[in-house]
Amino acid sequence: MNRKSKSVLSSIALALLLTGGAISPAWAVASFDEVKRDYRPSETLILDRSGELIQRLRTDKTVRRGQWVALPDVSPALRTALVLSEDKRFYEHSGVDWRAVSAAAWGNLWNTRTRGASTISMQLAGLMDEDWRAGAGGRSIVQKVGQTVSAQVLEARWRKDQILEAYLNLVPFRGEMVGIDALSRTLFDKAAHGLDEREAAIAAALVRAPNAKVAQVSQRACGVLKVMQAPAKVDCEGLDLFAAAALQRKAFDASEGVAPHLARRLLALRASSPAPKGKESLGAEPAISKGERGGNESALLPLPPGDGKADGSSNLPSRTLTSTLRAPLQRFAVQTLTQQLRELHGRHVEDGAIVVLDNATGEVLAWVGSSGELSGAAEVDGVTALRQPGSTLKPFLYAQAIAERRITAASLLEDSSSQIQTAGGLYIPQNYDHQFKGLVSARTALGASLNVPAVRTLVMVSPDAFHKQLKAVGLPLRESGDYYGYSLALGSSEVSLLSLANAYRTLANGGRYSAPSLAKNPKPVFRPALDARAAFIATDIMSDTMARARTFGTDSILATRFWTAVKTGTSKDMRDNWAMGFSQRYTVGVWVGNASGAPMWDVSGTSGAAPIWTALMNYLHKTERSRAPTPPAGLVQSQTRFGNQGGTPLEAARSEWFLKGTEQAVFAINSGASGARPERATARNSTQKGIQKTVAEPDAVPRITAPASGTIIALDPDIPPTHQRISFSAEGRGTRWLMDGKEFARGSRAQWLPWPGRHVVQLLDANGKVADEIKFEVRGAGVREASARGGAPAVR
């Protein structure tokens, strides 16, 4: 070694001695465990209740870091390429490669280009301590000395495998990509353990020059391959094309998994509910009044554990949240929703949502916010979005009426044409199948989801009282009961799938309410929200196959081989379709529709959401039993029979549940005069005497008795237009009906498919003369006739 090179090395040694006091912080090197613990990925991992990954969501937009990768999970090819490229004597030196330092000094002396003397340990020291990082003009002599000392301290305190592992996870590769996980998943769409020699060579080349052009990267990668293999065997042909394709790839999606909406919900909850200083507390469950004001779903969900601290676990990686979901159930729910929507292709429906709750704890076991790629608005979370619930509110209405002793499950309600005066005109509810059933029991009315009896029941209860009941079971309605009016019985309000499912869970728990939870093993705080006896009777009706037979048949999709209670619902213009129900242990809620609010075509409760609900219930009970609830105190079961109408019993005799003191042996009609017409009768219940009276009107000369002239008829938005009819009635014999001058019916009664606009109806007597005439107006969506091709009617 000549005099000049010795002088250079002496200067370095002198600098080490002179600056020793100035670099004392270098001795305070963090431990390997501390570095790994403080590592911050740019994404958050959402785990299911068993620790299985269900969603990965990027949360740091400034940098792209993947998860920390253990050294055994890095491919041997990459470890070899990196060591040979950056520090070939890595396993021999103690932090500083003095042979490389000497070579670098000699090269600098003679202006010869060398690879540099920076070891992997020195580079890691620079990555860990910003004091030693190079600035725009490179490192100063003090920084170089500090980096050297830190590297030697690292070597003294860390094992070689720990140094290499930390380096692979902290080294920048290209652009925003930091660490081997982000690089391998972004450029090669695979995990780090799957990188081959060619991919490893490109990764090693990027360490030396992260932002080099493609030609330089491929050239350096070729050199790495020649070091790894015998130069004669290396063929770099096509490497430039491979490198170009890799450097343009962005395969590492910002979000990936089966629960994207839940992931965003968890992050939002954590952001809005910071833990107390020094703690990762879940906090107390908020009062229901918070959820009632504005419909804030976040107030209903206690915070889940995360970051490896809240659940007492210290080995979870940073930015990890553990949810209450079951991964297998979540995947099945996503698959089932997708399959059902594909089968509904052509019916103008593309969205859906699912939530599954544990009845006892309130834990959310499945949360599917949308149909993903099938949706035009996949970011909208259908679990928390507000929608009209349709007939799914009826169980709470009947339960309230039973609790208030206004009706019993056997009380007779009149299902006939009804006109209710409202501020917007006459409200004329109709049934789904556009047919009236006459006098039916409350059990049949709820089970068969008849609209007219539900509205008549709400008249007894009052919209304001029903509104308070809905709020008590956790439905945060935005407006008052008077605002919704009698249409509240048919679900004209807006609720979320989550709050509606939890309201059904309240029924499953005998009328006791507690908030749903995203925290594992919560301690639910129950409060009474609905009379337990009335909740039991409503539940019993929803589980009764015969009660819903008049609308759905005895062998509908809603029937299960184990005990369940279920209710369907369809909102205005077929915009929302629901199936809500529960078993002994689980509550399942399903919504199908369009996030845009567009109406579906010919999709009902049994063809839209119900198949999904049934599939989920069958999945949940593959091995679990489900038994009917035990009746609470204060109920009696009594044999009941019904009176005749036209010589036929109104309903078959049966054993019925009653609140103690309201039981009756007979429910019948007592006609005040012969020839009474049921469609003109007004029924009045008396639960004490079991008598319902009707008042008949005498026969008269031919005249139109309903509707009245000047009536404004608003089509029921809960029923598909093709299933609606306007009923006309008249007195007299031999009558014929004209609609806008064209005959459309004969006899004392007539039905007409409504069409929006102003119309004139005339009644002709037996001689063909106009005996009576009315004018009325129809408002709402109508139906235009099928096209000449024979297609189905289209909604206007």
Task: Describe the fold and architecture.
With 796 residues, this protein is α+β, with helices and mostly antiparallel strands. Among the domains are: 3-30 and 63-248, Biosynthetic peptidoglycan transglycosylase-like (Penicillin binding protein transpeptidase fold), CATH 1.10.3810; 259-322, no CATH class; 635-694, no CATH class; 703-795, Immunoglobulin-like (Sandwich). It is 30% helix and 20% strand. It has 23 helices and 36 strands.
Show the helix and strand layout.
Elements: H1 3-18, H2 32-38, E1 43-47, E2 53-58, E3 64-65, H3 76-86, H4 98-109, H5 120-128, H6 141-157, H7 160-170, E4 172-174, E5 177-178, H8 180-187, H9 197-208, H10 214-228, H11 239-248, E6 255-257, H12 260-272, H13 288-292, E7 320-322, H14 327-343, E8 351-358, E9 364-368, E10 386-387, H15 394-403, E11 412-415, E12 420-422, E13 425-427, E14 438-441, H16 442-447, H17 451-461, H18 463-472, H19 481-484, E15 495-496, H20 497-508, E16 512-513, E17 527-528, H21 532-542, H22 549-552, E18 565-570, E19 576-582, E20 586-593, H23 610-620, E21 635-642, E22 644-645, E23 648-649, E24 654-659, E25 666-671, E26 691-694, E27 703-706, E28 711-714, E29 726-731, E30 736-739, E31 742-746, E32 749-752, E33 757-764, E34 770-779, E35 783-784, E36 794-795
Parallel strand pairs: 1-7, 3-5, 21-25, 25-26, 28-34
Antiparallel strand pairs: 1-2, 2-6, 4-5, 8-9, 8-20, 10-15, 11-14, 12-13, 16-17, 18-19, 19-20, 21-24, 22-23, 27-29, 29-32, 30-31, 30-33, 33-34, 35-36
